[in-house]
Amino acid sequence: MREFDIEGLRQAEFQAEIFEASATKTDCSSLIFLRRYGKSKLALSFDRGTADYSLTVEDALREIEEEFGHSSYGKDKYPASVLYWLGYQYRYIAYTRQCETRFLFRLFPPKKMASTYLAFHTQSQEWVVASWLEIVEKDEKIFSPFERAKAYYRKVYGL
Q1: Is the distance from CB of 11 to CB of 95 less than 8 angstroms?
Q2: Model-level pTM?
Q3: pLDDT of 13-38, one tens digit each?
Q4: Angle, nearest 10°, between helix axes 80-97 and 125-135?
Q5: How buried is 135 (Cβ within 10 angstroms: 0-12 exposed, 13-18 middle, 19+ buried)?
Q6: pLDDT the model gives residue 134
Q7: Domain limits of the chain?
Q8: pLDDT for 139-153, tens place per residue?
Q9: Cα distances (angstroms) measured from residue 94 to each of 70, 89, 101, 157
Q10: Element (H or E) spanning 57, and its range?
Q11: Measured distance CA(97)–CA(62) in Å, rounded
Q12: Which SS3 state, helix, strand or coil, does residue 120 take?
């Protein structure tokens, strides 16, 4: 596990601001935005540590819209505070566990995790990680690429 340093904090705050702004500055539902973000080049740039911090939040939202096209699909918007918390929490996990956003969105579905906001948002990030893992019935091993590969080969090849 990597220490949550100043770079991790910068990434988490920027991603949280992007998620928060999506509540008012995108036309699609929050879940559609999150799905697009999870598959975006921007998320991948955070995952790889190559994010462009000269971007503004508006630039980031525009970049996602240019990548996927405009959408007004869906109507359910999460409150900005929930989106901020989700953005921060997902980036905290991605940074400290060194895994991709795409993987985290599959492991911790945003709809399910958003429902934990009221109970969890005042807790520490590590407490939230442990609780989310409990919800999805996994443990810290899931963050190990080696353990994920072993599980995949067991499933596919019956090893």
Answers
A1: yes
A2: 0.92
A3: 999 999 999 999 999 999 999 999 99
A4: 90
A5: middle
A6: 98
A7: 6-157
A8: 999 999 888 888 888
A9: 27, 9, 6, 29
A10: helix 57-68
A11: 28
A12: helix
